[in-house]
C-alpha cells in the first residue's frame, strides 16, 4: 500500500500541472458566486463604520442584520466560515445529505444552502467526471508528461463512461443514505433515552462517523472502477464497478489504507491551514493577497490529495496486475 | 494497516481537533474590573433591608416518592394569614401538575414545549395531581372536599390546574386559617415540562397544592399558562421527603435532619424561612461538589452543586458562575440573604434545565462546552440571578414577566460581560434534534467573533418587536416568540439603554433602592417607575412610554453630504453695490477629499429616525482638520439636519457612546468618508466565502 502511495505521489509530482487545471476549474466556478458577493459587500459597507470592523475583525451587529436580508447564495456568509468552521459546515452538509443538490437530504427543515450553490456543485461534479478520464490517462503513462490537448482528448474519450460511473455512484450513495435513515432514527432514539449526555454524544457523532465511512467505501469502489475503465479500457461502467468491488474485497487493507492516509493528510492539511490562517492578520491589500494565496494553496493541496489518491489507486491496480 | 501506522494516523486526526473547536478562540486570561462594594443592611441613602418576609403562607409538608411507580403521596399543613382588609371564605390553590393530565388543559392547548403537538407523546408524558382530602383545621375540623371546584378564568372547563375550596366561616382581616391537604401525584416524564423524571433523576417542582395570592383586592391564582407560572406568598417551609435509600437529594433550604426509616427508606427534612416556593431533586447519579462564597461585605453562602457525572469537568465553571451571580447581583441590587444555595445540573433528556426556585436552581450543560460560549456560565448566572428578583422581590410573573425575566436578563448580560468578558459566537455541527436542553454535536467557536452585550436580542426586536406592547400579561402575547422577546430581550435592552442614559451611578442607586424597598413585597411596574422618579427626580415617564408601554421600534441612522464650498458665480453685488456678473470658475482638477488641505467644504449631516420610537440622541461629527463637534437632537421629527462649513466631514456617529442599545440597526449609526475600508472588507469576506465554496465544490467528489 505504501509503495502505491509512493508511486502515486511520484506520478503526481511529474504531472503537477494537473492540480492547477483542476484548481482552475474549481476557482472559476466558485468565482461565479464570490465576485458578485464582493461587489455586494462593497456596496453594503460603503461609508459605514462597520466596514472598518469587518476589515479588522467581525461586526456582529452589521452581519446579523445583513444576513437577515439575504435570500440567495450570499446567505451562507457568516462567522462559521472562519477558522476551521468552513470545513465543519461542509462536512455537516455532506453528512446530512445536501451534496449534491440536496438529493439525499431528509426532513422538512430549512434548506441550509441556496439552490444556486447546490446547482454549482452539480456542475462541478460533471466537470470532474469529464476530467477524471483525462487525468487517469495521464497517470497511466509513467513519466509521460501531458499536454492540455491530450488531457482534453482523454477526458472526452472516457467522458461517457465516467458520467455513467458517476450516476452509478450517486445511486450507491442514495442506497447508503436510504439505509442510514432508519439506522440514524434508531441511534437517535437510543441517544434520546440515554442516561448520560456523553453516551448520547458518542452515539450521535458515531453514527455520523459510520456514515462518512460508508460514503468513503462507496467512493473507494467507484474510484477504483474509474481506474479500471481507463487502465483496462472497460466499456461497461457496471461491470467495471463489479470488478472494482472484487478488487477492493481482495485487498481491503491496501485499498482502505490508502483512504486512511488520504484522510489523515487532509486533516493535517486542514490543521496547518487553520494555524496559518490564525497567524495571518489581514490589515491591507498586501495581506489580503497573501490570504487569498493561502486559500488557493490550501485548495490546491486538497485537490492534490485527491489526485494523489487517484494515481495511487492506479498504481495499486497496476502492481496487483504485475503480481498476478 | 500496521498498528504503528494506525497510531500515526490517529495522532494526525487528533491533532486537527483543537483547530475545529475553540482552541483559537481563547484569548489571554480576562481580568474583570473592580465592582462597587455591596451596600450594607442600613446603608445611608437607601431603604433598609427587611429582616424577614410577611410569612403569611407557611407550609409543613410530608411527602413520599415512589420512584418505581413514579408517584408522590403527600400531605401538607398550610398556615395562612389574611393580610388583606377583607374577610375571605374562598381559597384557590394551584394544582400545577394537572397541566399534564391530558391534552385538554390550558397548557396543553397552548403553544410551546409543553403542548402535546410539539413533543413525543406516550403514556409517560402525562401526569396529574389528585386532592384526596382538604380540611380546615380547628375546633372542630371542617371537611372542605365537598366544596372543591375547579376555576377556569380562561374559559377552559377541561383545565384543572386551579381548585377552590370554601370555608363555612370567613377568615377575618388579620386572622389565620390552617388547612390540611392530602394528595397523590403521578409524575410526568421530565421531557415534557420542568417537573418530572428521567431515569432516576427526579426534579420535583410545582409539586404540591399551593395557595394563590390575595392581591390588589382579589385572589390572584391563574391557571398554569404555557409560559409563566410564578406568584406566591412568602412563608416558612418545613418539608420532610421520604425516598428509597441511595438517592442524593437536594432541595430548597437547609437540611435539618436525615434519618433512616425502618421500612428501608430515608427521610430528609429541609427547612427554609422567607421563601415563596419549595423545590427538590433526587438522583442516584449526582456527584456532589461544595464551595463557599465569602467575599468581603457579603453574607457567606454555602454552594452545593449536584452534578451529572459526565459534566464533572464543568464543576468548577458552575461554581465560579454561581459566585459571579452572588457577587455582582449582590452589589448591584442587595446581597443574597440565605446561607446556602443549591445548583442542579439536570440529567440528559430532562427539560428542567435553566429554571429557578428559591435557594435552588438548575443550570444546563453539554459535555463539549467551549469556554468562549459561556455555557454553562450564562445559564448559571441567569438562574442564580433569579434569586434576587423572582426569589426575593417576587413580582407577579404571570402578569408582568418582564419585571423578573427582563431585569434578570439585563443583569445576566451585565454580570457575564463584567466577570467573563464578551461572549463568543459559535454553533454546533453534526447534531441531532433531541429537543430543548439536550444538545449534542460538535461545537465550533468562530475565532475572534465576540457578541456585544445585548446584541443577541436585536434580531428578535427587528423581527417581532412590533407584534406586542412590551408590558402586558404574559399569556396575552401574540405567540411564544413575542412572549420571549417582550419578557427577556426587549426589557433587557430597555434597561441597558436606561443604564446608558442615566449613567452607572444612578442606575446602581435605582436598582439598589428598588431591590431593597420591595424585597418580599410583590411590586408592580408602577412601583418600579415610582422608584425611577424618586431616584432620578422624575422626567423619565416618556422614556417608558416609548419602550415599556409601546410596540414601536427605534432606529436612528445618519447620512452625510459634503461638497466643496461654492465659488461665487452669477450676478453678485459688486464693489459699488450694483449687481455684476461673475463667471463660474471651473476647477481643472477634482478637489482632493478628506485631507486637511482639501479646501473649504459645505457639509450636511442628517440624522434620520426610521422607527416610530423617539428618544433624544447625541451626534458626534469629526472633520478633516481634526475638529470634533458634539450635537444633540430630541428625536421628535423624522429627521434633523446639521450644516457645517469649513473642513470636510470625515465621520459622523449617532449615539457615539452606544447608550441607546435598543436601536435595532446600529450599523447605520456611523458614516465614514473613507471608502477604501469597504473595498478591503468586501474583498476579505468574499475571499473567505471563496474558501468555503471551493472546498464545498471539491467535497462533492466524495459522492460523485
Description:
The complex is a heterodimer of chains A (324) and B (704). Chain A is mainly alpha-helical and 324 residues long. Chain A contains eleven helices and no strands. Chain B has 704 residues and is an alpha+beta fold. In chain B, strands 5-4-8-2-1-14-17-16 form an eight-stranded mixed beta sheet, with no helix packed on it. A five-stranded mixed beta sheet of chain B has the order 19-20-21-23-22. A four-stranded antiparallel beta sheet of chain B has the order 6-7-3-11, with no helix packed on it. In chain B, helix 7 (480-502) packs across helix 8 (504-517). The longest helix of chain B has 24 residues, at 676-699. The model of chain B is unreliable at 1-5 and 21-26 (pLDDT under 50). Classes of the chains: A mainly alpha (324), B alpha+beta (704). Chains A and B meet through helix 2, helix 3, helix 4, helix 5 and helix 6 of A and helix 1, strand 24, strand 25, helix 6 and strand 34 of B.
The helicity of chain A comes to over 70%
- What's the main sheet of chain B like? 8 strands, mixed
Number of strands of chain B: 34
Proportion of β residues of chain A?
Answer: under 5%
Subunit organisation of the chains: heterodimer
Integer-rounded radius of gyration of chain B:
31 Å
Unreliable residue stretches of chain A:
none
Instruction: Work out the largest interface and the residue count of each chain.
Output: A-B, 116 and 91 residues
Amino acid at each position: 500500500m505504501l509503495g502505491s502511495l509512493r508511486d502515486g505521489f511520484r506520478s503526481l509530482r511529474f504531472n503537477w500541472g494537473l492540480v492547477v487545471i483542476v484548481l482552475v476549474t474549481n476557482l472559476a466556478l466558485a468565482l461565479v458566486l464570490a465576485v458578485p458577493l464582493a461587489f455586494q459587500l462593497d456596496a453594503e459597507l460603503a461609508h459605514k463604520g462597520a466596514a472598518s470592523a469587518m476589515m479588522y475583525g467581525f461586526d456582529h451587529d452589521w452581519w446579523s442584520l445583513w444576513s437577515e436580508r439575504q435570500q440567495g447564495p450570499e446567505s451562507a456568509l457568516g462567522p462559521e466560515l472562519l477558522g476551521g468552521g468552513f470545513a465543519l459546515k461542509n462536512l455537516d452538509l455532506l453528512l446530512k445529505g445536501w451534496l449534491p443538490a440536496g438529493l439525499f437530504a431528509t426532513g422538512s427543515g430549512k434548506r441550509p444552502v441556496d439552490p444556486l450553490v447546490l446547482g454549482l456543485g452539480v456542475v462541478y461534479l460533471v466537470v470532474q467526471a469529464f476530467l477524471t478520464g483525462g487525468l487517469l490517462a495521464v497517470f497511466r503513462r509513467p513519466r509521460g508528461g501531458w499536454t492540455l490537448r491530450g488531457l482534453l482528448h482523454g477526458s472526452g474519450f472516457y467522458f461517457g463512461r465516467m458520467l455513467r460511473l458517476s450516476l452509478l455512484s450517486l445511486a450507491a450513495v442514495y442506497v447508503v443514505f436510504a439505509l442510514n435513515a432508519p439506522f440514524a432514527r434508531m441511534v437517535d432514539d437510543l441517544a434520546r433515552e440515554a442516561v448520560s449526555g456523553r453516551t448520547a454524544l458518542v452515539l450521535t457523532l458515531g453514527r455520523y462517523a459510520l456514515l462518512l465511512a460508508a460514503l468513503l467505501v462507496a467512493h473507494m469502489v467507484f474510484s477504483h472502477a474509474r481506474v479500471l475503465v481507463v487502465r483496462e479500457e472497460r466499456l461497461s461502467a457496471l461491470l467495471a464497478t463489479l470488478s472494482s468491488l472484487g478488487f477492493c474485497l481482495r485487498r481491503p487493507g491496501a485499498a482502505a489504507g490508502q483512504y486512511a492516509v488520504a484522510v489523515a493528510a487532509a486533516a493535517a492539511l486542514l490543521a496547518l491551514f487553520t494555524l496559518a490562517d490564525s497567524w495571518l492578520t489581514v490589515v491591507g491589500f498586501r495581506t489580503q493577497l497573501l490570504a487569498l494565496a493561502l486559500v488557493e494553496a490550501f485548495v490546491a493541496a486538497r485537490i492534490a490529495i485527491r489526485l494523489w489518491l487517484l494515481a495511487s489507486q492506479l498504481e495499486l491496480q497496476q502492481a496487483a496486475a504485475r503480481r498476478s | 494497516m500496521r498498528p504503528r501506522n494506525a497510531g500515526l494516523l490517529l495522532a494526525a486526526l487528533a491533532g486537527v481537533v483543537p483547530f475545529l473547536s475553540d482552541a483559537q478562540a481563547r484569548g489571554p486570561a480576562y481580568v474583570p474590573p473592580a465592582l462597587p462594594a455591596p451596600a450594607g443592611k442600613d446603608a445611608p441613602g437607601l431603604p433598609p433591608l427587611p429582616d424577614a418576609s410577611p410569612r403569611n403562607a407557611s407550609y409543613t409538608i410530608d411527602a413520599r416518592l415512589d420512584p418505581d411507580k413514579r408517584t408522590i403521596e403527600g400531605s401538607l399543613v398550610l398556615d395562612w394569614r389574611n393580610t388583606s382588609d377583607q374577610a375571605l371564605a374562598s381559597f384557590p390553590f394551584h394544582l400545577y401538575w394537572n397541566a399534564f393530565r391530558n391534552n385538554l388543559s390550558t397548557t396543553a392547548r397552548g403553544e410551546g414545549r409543553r403542548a402535546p403537538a410539539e413533543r413525543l407523546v406516550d403514556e409517560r408524558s402525562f401526569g396529574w395531581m389528585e386532592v384526596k382530602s382538604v380540611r380546615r383545621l380547628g375546633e372542630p375540623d371542617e371537611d372542605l372536599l365537598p366544596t372543591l371546584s375547579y376555576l377556569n378564568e380562561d374559559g377552559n372547563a377541561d383545565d384543572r390546574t386551579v381548585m377552590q375550596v370554601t370555608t363555612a366561616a370567613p377568615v377575618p382581616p388579620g386572622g389565620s386559617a390552617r388547612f390540611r391537604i392530602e394528595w397523590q401525584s403521578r409524575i410526568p416524564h421530565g421531557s415534557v415540562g420542568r417537573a418530572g423524571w428521567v431515569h432516576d433523576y427526579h426534579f420535583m417542582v410545582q409539586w404540591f397544592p399551593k395557595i394563590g395570592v390575595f392581591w390588589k383586592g382579589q385572589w390572584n391564582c391563574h391557571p398554569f399558562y404555557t409560559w409563566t407560572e410564578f406568584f406566591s406568598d412568602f412563608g416558612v417551609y418545613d418539608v420532610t421527603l421520604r425516598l428509597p435509600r441511595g438517592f442524593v437529594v437536594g432541595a430548597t433550604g437547609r437540611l435539618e435532619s436525615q434519618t433512616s426509616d425502618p421500612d428501608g427508606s430515608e427521610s430528609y427534612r429541609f427547612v427554609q424561612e422567607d421563601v415563596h416556593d419549595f423545590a427538590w431533586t433526587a438522583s442516584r447519579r449526582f456527584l456532589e461538589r461544595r464551595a463557599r462564597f465569602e467575599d468581603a461585605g457579603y453574607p457567606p453562602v454555602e454552594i452545593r452543586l449536584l452534578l451529572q457525572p459526565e459534566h464533572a469537568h464543568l464543576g468548577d465553571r458552575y461554581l465560579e458562575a454561581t459566585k459571579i451571580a452572588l457577587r455582582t447581583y449582590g452589589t448591584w441590587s442587595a446581597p443574597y440573604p440565605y446561607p446556602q444555595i443549591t445548583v442542579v445540573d439536570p440529567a440528559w433528556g430532562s427539560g428542567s434545565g435553566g429554571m429557578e426556585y428559591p435557594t435552588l436552581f438548575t443550570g444546563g450543560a453539554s459535555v463539549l462546552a467551549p469556554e468562549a460560549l459561556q455555557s454553562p456560565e450564562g445559564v448559571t448566572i441567569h438562574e442564580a440571578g433569579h434569586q434576587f428578583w423572582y426569589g426575593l422581590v417576587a413580582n407577579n410573573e404571570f402578569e408582568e414577566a418582564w419585571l423578573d425575566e427582563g431585569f434578570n436578563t439585563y443583569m445576566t448580560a451585565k454580570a457575564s460581560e463584567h466577570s467573563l468578558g464578551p461572549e463568543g459566537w459559535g454553533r454546533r455541527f453534526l447534531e441531532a434534534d433531541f429537543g430543548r436542553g439536550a444538545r449534542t454535536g460538535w461545537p465550533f467557536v468562530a475565532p475572534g467573533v465576540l457578541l456585544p452585550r445585548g446584541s443577541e436580542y436585536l434580531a428578535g426586536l427587528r423581527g417581532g418587536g412590533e407584534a406586542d406592547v412590551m408590558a402586558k400579561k404574559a399569556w396575552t402575547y401574540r405567540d411564544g416568540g413575542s412572549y420571549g422577546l417582550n419578557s427577556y430581550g426587549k426589557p433587557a435592552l430597555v434597561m441597558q439603554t436606561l443604564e446608558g442614559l442615566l449613567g452607572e451611578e444612578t442606575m446602581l442607586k435605582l436598582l439598589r433602592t428598588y431591590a431593597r424597598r420591595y424585597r418580599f413585597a410583590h411590586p408592580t411596574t408602577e412601583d418600579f417607575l415610582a422608584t425611577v422618579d424618586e431616584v432620578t427626580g422624575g422626567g423619565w415617564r416618556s422614556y417608558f412610554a416609548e419602550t415599556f408601554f409601546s410596540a414601536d421600534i427605534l432606529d436612528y441612522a445618519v447620512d452625510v453630504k459634503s461638497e466643496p464650498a461654492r465659488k461665487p458665480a452669477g450676478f453678485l453685488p459688486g464693489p459699488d453695490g450694483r449687481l455684476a456678473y461673475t463667471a463660474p470658475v471651473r476647477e481643472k482638477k477634482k478637489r482632493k477629499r478628506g485631507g486637511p488641505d482639501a479646501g473649504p467644504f459645505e457639509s450636511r449631516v442628517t440624522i434620520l429616525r426610521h422607527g416610530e420610537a423617539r428618544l433624544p440622541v447625541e451626534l458626534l461629527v469629526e472633520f478633516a482638520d481634526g475638529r470634533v463637534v458634539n450635537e444633540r437632537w430630541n428625536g421628535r421629527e423624522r429627521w434633523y439636519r446639521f450644516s457645517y462649513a469649513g473642513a470636510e466631514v470625515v465621520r459622523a456617529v449617532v449615539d457615539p457612546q452606544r447608550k441607546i442599545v435598543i436601536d435595532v440597526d446600529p450599523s447605520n449609526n456611523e458614516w465614514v468618508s473613507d471608502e477604501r475600508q469597504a473595498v478591503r472588507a468586501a474583498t476579505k469576506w468574499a475571499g473567505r466565502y471563496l474558501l468555503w465554496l471551493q472546498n464545498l465544490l471539491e467535497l462533492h467528489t466524495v459522492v460523485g
